[in-house]
Write a structure and sequence with these properties.
By secondary structure, the protein is an alpha/beta fold. The chain has a single domain, classed as Alpha-Beta Barrel (TIM Barrel), CATH 3.20.20.30. Helix content is 38%, strand content 17%. Strand 5 and strand 6 form a beta hairpin. Helix 4 packs across helix 5 and helix 5 packs parallel to helix 6.
Length: 386
């Protein structure tokens, strides 16, 4: 049989998932490289950002994980669940940090509290104080994901691997969602990471690149996933600066780095757990290829990466320019966007006023059929209805 006929096809849908970012890792400020206590990662500040994103109509919010000064992701997401109404929570988990059956139970509990609004960001970074090779980290993540999927879809967890040997009943860890468990989002650039996403994950998250390089990443992932008989959706994690005019947007971009000591910026970038990853090096290469004003292509500004590790570029422009850039990405096949800006609440409000009403937004768990049409009435410990 032709391989193309055996690939699991994803449902066709219009629009995209438009998400915001919760700066749990002390990543909020009014000037890059300048620590303003008013924007310190705290329950008060970060919960306000998430509630604001929920009220403004964003469909998901990334809750990151890091050992840097900040807050615990699962604890934060659990506290936010009853304080939000419609927004999904994209909750980051570091594979290996929690014993997989206990992680499955924690995520199932959180998913019940959220009533199906949970999505998962798979992280394969080194755990604080430990160091594994890239291949070992992804091998551990592969085992964790396999155990989670068994826990969510089978009556028994029966797994024998290099890192974990487990045989347990799955009833205590069944999630609210009935069709395979929460969606898995993944970002990684190494061959092992790409293979892991192609085989097991639902959304491949990319950091900003030029459009041709993004297309190359997407083509590679599409081919790799096809080898497993699967299709994968694509997402882009990128900052955004939108103002009424292009001049105002560019002026604010320069304002953000106006108080930055470049040596201090290097220190900020290098303190992150993933500072030496392939993804971070690609962001540095992107910035190195930009012009003297840090633009690498029209409306893609890399100056924001001077003082942060990870995602290091922003879409900058007036409402039409930002909207058109997003539409170009959508036409390429990107269906999930995680935006952010500095300070996060202020920029969420600008984006929601100037761009968001023009975009057709969706909830990926809903369009992919993960959310049950009725609320399950079965107790958590007995799993969802069949």
């Amino acid at each position: 049989m032709n391989k193309k006929n055996t690939i699991r096809k994803l449902p066709l849908f219009e629009g995209a998932e438009i998400s915001w970012f919760a700066p749990l890792c002390d990543g909020d400020d009014d000037f890059l490289g300048h620590r303003n206590p008013a924007f310190k990662s705290s329950w008060e500040n970060t919960s306000d950002i998430v509630k604001t994103a929920d009220n403004l109509g964003f469909r998901n919010v990334l809750c990151p994980s890091s050992y840097q000064v900040g807050q615990d992701t699962l604890t934060f997401a659990s506290a936010m669940a009853p304080l939000t109404n419609q927004i999904n929570l994209l909750t980051a988990i570091r594979c290996g940090e929690i014993h997989p059956p206990m992680l499955a139970r924690a995520l199932a509990t959180l998913d019940h509290i959220l009533k199906g609004r949970l999505t998962i960001n798979i992280i394969s970074s080194d755990l604080p104080g430990t160091e594994l090779s890239s291949s070992q980290r992804y091998a551990r993540s592969r085992e964790v994901i396999a155990i989670l999927k068994q826990a969510w879809t089978q009556e028994e967890i029966d797994f024998q691997g290099e890192f974990y040997q487990i045989k347990l009943p799955a009833a205590p860890v069944k999630p609210y969602q009935q069709n395979g468990g929460p969606l898995l989002y993944f970002g990684g650039y190494s061959p092992d990471g790409v293979a892991l996403c192609a085989e097991h994950c639902d959304v491949y998250l990319m950091w900003p690149e030029t459009e041709d390089k993004l297309q190359g990443l997407m083509d590679n992932m599409t081919n790799q996933a096809a080898g497993f008989g699967r299709s994968v959706l694509f997402g882009l994690r990128v900052h955004v600066i939108v103002r009424e005019t292009e001049e105002e947007a560019k002026a604010y971009a320069q304002h953000l780095i106006s108080d930055l000591d470049l040596n201090q910026g290097d220190e900020i970038r290098n303190r992150a757990q993933d500072a030496k990853s392939l993804g971070v090096s690609r962001q540095s290469e992107l910035r190195d290829s930009a012009d003297e004003d840090y633009f690498v292509e029209p409306h893609l500004w890399t100056g924001i990466g001077l003082a942060r590790s990870g995602c290091g570029a922003a879409i900058v422009g007036n409402p039409d320019q930002v909207y058109d850039k997003i539409q170009r990405y959508i036409k390429m096949g990107i269906r999930s966007f995680i935006f952010s800006g500095y300070p996060h609440k202020q920029e969420a409000e600008y984006f929601a006023e100037l761009v968001l009403p023009r975009l057709k937004t969706v909830s990926l768990p809903e369009v992919l059929g993960r959310i049950p049409t009725e609320t399950p009435n079965t107790p958590l410990e007995k799993g969802p209805r069949t």
